[in-house]
Write a structure and sequence with these properties.
The chain is α/β, with parallel strands linked by helices and 355 residues long. The chain has helices spanning 15-33, 47-53, 61-65, 84-89, 92-98, 163-179, 197-209, 222-231, 243-256, 297-309, 313-327, 343-354, and strands spanning 3-11, 36-41, 70-75, 103-109, 127-133, 143-146, 154-157, 184-189, 216-221, 238-241, 264-268, 276-280. The chain folds into 2 domains: 1-102 and 264-355, Isopropylmalate Dehydrogenase (3-Layer(aba) Sandwich), CATH 3.40.718.10; 116-257, Isopropylmalate Dehydrogenase. It has a 10-stranded mixed β-sheet, sandwiched between helices. A hairpin with a 7-residue loop joins β6 and β7 (154-157). Bound molecules: nicotinamide-adenine-dinucleotide, 3-isopropylmalic acid and manganese (II) ion (MN).
């Protein structure tokens, strides 16, 4: 009798519309595959919560969600009311750091029925993972502003690449590459211009590669790597990158496979000391929020990743198959994919295909 305890956090904007639809599909999967879900809803990590409490989360947020098996998250950010760096550093980035979710795993897969903006690409041609470092690197709050308001004003911000933090993300990526058919790893670097942290990154990649003689590996500077994503996406299998480079690559990759709206992600603590968090790659989409038209597939695919993480591998794969069925049917797609469906009808179609 498997029971999974999930903290459900919609956040802001379209997160409030897509999360309930992800939950709909999770419940359908539980019914079909014979496991139970204990779903606990939380209203914090949202700019609405900030408006009421003057902060993004309660003081005891860690106690309130730290014992759950996973976190199912929507999106956060409402720049009209709370500056993005305040809302994000007060919620999502805290989750990633405090729960040591140092892997951000983001699949880029061309799906049947979703046209790629790249000419001549078919499903099967693009199928890789971006493995993004998720707790350090260029994302830091280390630094400051000097001489504010004067003509001597300047700002400094440090990047941090620890040996521990670099080696563990590289190990995760090499392990993943080793398990895949192509056994190919690509490292994103910029050691020509960023003269301390990136040569260090390269050095650690080279050292780690020695433990994986069966994994073929290469590296590209981030600038030409973005060009190869567009021109030769079939070249990639596992792409490992620092926090910022991984952020950029994990919007570009899904854009090459049609749209970021269907892209999922797992913020993973592989040691399972803390809960991992599953969320779409996209944000709160203020431009379409409240209209009921957001594509729910990124959220639903994230649910599939969460179930696989929780050991419900069969259920996770079945959801992905149901997603493929729905995307292949023009009348079940949402407006961003030129279909007539809305958030709810698209998600219901996935739940039906699953059942
Ligand atoms: P965004 O991903 O929210 O939106 C970018 C564009 O994609 C918009 O035109 C939007 O309408 C469209 N889009 C996104 N998801 C969609 C979906 N499911 N269906 C249809 N269209 C979709 O990125 P942004 O505009 O840069 O950011 C908006 C807010 O979200 C900001 O506050 C930002 O900081 C935040 N954000 C949060 C996360 C997160 O929670 N993980 C990720 C990215 C951005
Ligand atoms: C993402 C988002 C976040 C990030 C932002 C909202 C801080 O873009 O999850 O990719 O940069 O990690
Ligand atoms: Mn991003």
């Amino acid at each position: 009798n498997r029971v999974h305890r999930i903290a459900v956090i919609p956040g802001d904007g379209i997160g409030k519309e897509t999360v309930p639809e992800g939950v709909r599909v999770l419940e359908a999967a539980a019914k079909k595959f014979g496991f139970k879900l204990q779903l606990d809803d939380f209203d914090f990590a949202s700019c609405d919560y900030y408006a009421r409490h003057g902060r993004m989360m309660p003081e005891d947020w860690k106690e309130r969600i730290g014992q759950h098996d996973a976190i199912f998250f929507g999106a956060v950010g409402w720049p009209d009311t709370v500056p993005d760096h305040v809302s994000l550093w007060g919620s999502l980035i805290l989750f990633r750091r405090e729960f040591d979710q140092y892997v951000n795993l983001r699949p880029c897969k061309l799906m049947p029925g979703v046209p790629s903006p790249l000419a001549g690409r078919q499903p099967g041609d693009i199928d890789f993972y971006v493995v993004r470092e998720n707790t350090e690197g260029e994302y830091s709050a280390l630094g400051g502003r000097m001489f504010p308001g004067t003509d001597r004003e300047f700002v400094v911000q440090e990047s941090v690449f620890t040996r521990h933090g670099t080696d563990r993300i590289l190990k995760f990526a090499f392990d993943l590459a080793q398990k895949r058919e192509k056994k190919h790893l690509t490292s994103a670097t910029k050691s020509n211009g960023i003269a301390i942290t990136m040569p260090y990154w390269d050095e650690r990649v080279e050292a780690m590669a020695k433990s994986y003689p069966d994994v073929r590996w290469d590296k590209y500077h981030i600038d030409i790597l973005t060009a190869h994503f567009v021109q030769n996406p079939d070249r990639f299998d596992v792409v490992v990158a620092s926090n910022l480079f991984g952020d950029i690559l994990s919007d570009l990759g899904p854009a090459c496979t049609g749209t970021i709206a269907i892209a999922p992600s797992g913020n993973i603590n592989p040691e399972r000391k803390f809960p991992s968090l599953f969320e779409p790659v996209h944000g709160s989409a203020p431009d379409i929020a409240g209209k009921g038209i957001a594509n729910p597939i990124g959220q639903i695919w994230s649910a599939a990743m969460m179930l696989e993480h929780l050991g419900e591998v069969e259920a996770g794969r079945a959801i992905l198959q149901a997603i493929e069925t729905v995307l292949s049917e023009p009348k079940l797609r949402t407006g961003d994919l030129k279909g007539p469906a809305n958030t709810v009808t698209c998600a219901k179609a996935v739940a039906d295909a699953l059942a």
